[in-house]
Amino acid sequence: MDCRSRHYNLHFILYKFYFLLNTVKYITLVLDPIKPDRDKLAQDWEEVTNIYAERDGSKKSPPLHLLSLLRTITRTLHSLQPPISAVQQGGGDAGLRRLLPLVHLQEPYPIQETRLSPETHQPTRRRHSADVPHHPLDPLTVTELNTVRKIIQTHDFFKNKAYALHSVVLEEPEKKLVLRWKKGEPLPPRKAAVVARVGGASHVLTVDLGSGEVTRHETGHMSGYPTMTVEDMTSVTWAPLASADFNRTVVERGVDLADLACLPISLGWFGKSEENRRLIKVQCYSMKDTANFYMRPIEGLTVLVDLDTKEVVHITDKGKHIPIPNAANTDYRFAAQNSYQRLVNPISIEQPKGPSFTVEDDHLVKWANWEFHLKPDPRAGVIVSRAMVQDPGTGEMRNVMYKGLTSELFVPYMDPTDAWYFKTYMDAGEYGFGLQAMPLDPLNDCPRNAYYMDGVFAAADGTPYVRSNMVCVFESYAGDIGWRHSESPITGMEIREVRPKVTLVVRMAASVANYDYIVDWEFQTDGLIRIKVGLSGILMVKGTPYANMNQVNDQESLYGTLLSENVIGVIHDHFITFYLDMDVDGPDNSFVKVNLQRAYTSPGESPRMSYLKAVRNVAKTEKDAQIKLKLYDPSEFHVVNPTKKTRVGNPVGYKVVPAGTAANLLDINDPPQKRGAFTNNQIWVTPYNETEQWAGGLFVYQSHGEDTLEVWSNRDREIENKDIVVWYTLGFHHVPCQEDFPIMPTVSASFDLKPVNFFESNPILKIPPNVESDLPICKADASA
């Protein structure tokens, strides 16, 4: 790239920053209208001008339009005033459009939603503005979100104050009201649960949409802060550019500001220095010559920023001797590859008779013998509610699960050094799992026969926006077998009875910065629910002076694996905790541990010496149900309804079938583990409490760990024959390898919720086999 081209790029990025700056100055004031030190900011930007003039002056003077632009920015900084937030006044969405490429604000309203056209199998658009709630659990509509926004704007507490709304979601009605409700009846009162930041404090409110009143207003009393807004995450990445020290360091490292990409990194909690101030760390990368900037870290450069004021609190720069890794072979995009391999021919599922599922009233999914309510959520990603399965004998729809969701994700990295020790993410509670959901790619994320659903959320000023194609629903057939049996002609009965297994999959994918998570809720006709998590995306890597392992004297000091020249993939864990409010044939259930134990025969009783027996123990209290899985202490874990029996007398139930059982190996007194204490066991059982839904607590950001699932469970409340919630944690240990470079093949794990004496017999005994006349006739491609 020649100098003129390079200056053009810098000119473009600075113009972009000039427009962003006007938005940032407002967003800075949203949370706490602290007057910035305008003279210091202006002085710093004059110094930025000088840095570029000095650096480029030895080759060629920077163009006049560039210096003029920098001076314009300087003058803008001089003129900064702390008015009431434009976002709060309702004028902030234009700024948001410039600032937030991840938030697809669509205008004019109504917002639209992608659907699948059954005729063309192509996505179509449906307008959201006319949406009305049909079910007590339906998410807030565009109209309702706008109503909440107006109520907040005119409420005495918010008038003439800067504020930000960190969460605006449906406050679900009492469970008993939802269970009693029948289609066609009036809905229970619609309310919004709002989390706001005002004047440096966190507030929890209930807004009654019918009365237009704020009916509850509490100040957050626990440690920690709410989930960051998208505006928080985006604006803070620009904050370091206000520091001349930061810009000087970047330039000295040989990186143009035009090539800079920075990430907001939650810093956990490690002591008093982080108290009473909402802080975040920012680390940066070089985008030069690759889209995969994660593989080009500016190692050792960490900026501590105040999230409320956007003040640069501290800059740490300890990695100047570490080169920025080369961009070669890092770009994963299809268009960037010199060639490609077609290892398999394309596969598509065709349904000539149409799909077997319907989505009624936008959120009620009906398929085969299943029915459930589905909605996107900014924190959990998706919420599956009121899951019921049809009894093949009676035709009755029977309750299985009242509510299931991703409660929290804990991702600790195993590098204790200065630039890495704090990387102990809580991806749902800190970043918002649903906020990080990217549009699903038809034909690749989801098959051709998929149905798509958007999420409609609220920006920091309450304005509705859409996460398009956030969830997909599709039927899946992978050649699996539902059941089979064959008999040999030797028996006189030549029998071949086989039934195909077709399942229904609900999928969402979240890209939390570098990492991608794919979460599937898979429903099977035999009554099983499989919850699966796939991990893909890009490793968070560390820069290193080493280009080859023959240069390394102590491999353990790498804290990971050398993946490429100057690139280390750091060892880390993933723990995904699920909330499962099981209502097996009703809300009152019990948790039964069925332990397999070795037993011995009496002398002379049998040629056998030993066998296994099943010993059943009903958990009386929460501590009885804290389960650490052990390979040589096998158990089954049943959720049963003790008041409902099969015709032969067994209590009806479902069992948790564990998998993905990597255990957390951190010391329980390690500060990250205190916050992530919900991973100390793989299974917990608690009595239903509508305030206990998030395993890391309501306010996770910088929390101290005093409001976690472990704290609740240690109260040791009674759980026998009660409305209970099961919590299960999928665990992954990840020691990176070269196959993970530059992008990771997907690795998955799952666990099952499986009927156990729930049905009188095999519930899919009577399903028919496939026959040719029911299937489409597909012609092979000419090249086949």
Tell me the layout of helices and strands.
Layout: H1 3-31, H2 38-57, H3 64-78, H4 86-89, H5 93-99, E1 112-116, E2 123-127, H6 142-154, E3 163-170, H7 175-180, E4 191-198, E5 201-208, E6 213-219, H8 230-236, H9 244-252, E7 260-265, E8 279-286, E9 297-306, E10 312-317, E11 357-360, E12 364-367, E13 370-377, E14 381-390, E15 397-412, E16 424-426, H10 427-431, E17 451-458, E18 464-476, E19 481-487, E20 495-500, E21 503-512, E22 515-524, E23 529-537, E24 541-543, E25 560-564, E26 567-570, E27 572-582, E28 588-600, E29 610-618, E30 635-645, E31 651-657, H11 671-675, E32 683-687, H12 709-713, E33 722-734, E34 744-756
Antiparallel strand pairs: 1-2, 3-4, 4-5, 5-6, 7-8, 8-9, 9-10, 11-12, 12-13, 13-14, 14-15, 15-16, 15-27, 17-18, 18-21, 19-20, 21-22, 22-23, 23-34, 24-26, 25-26, 27-33, 28-29, 28-30, 28-33, 30-31, 31-34, 32-33
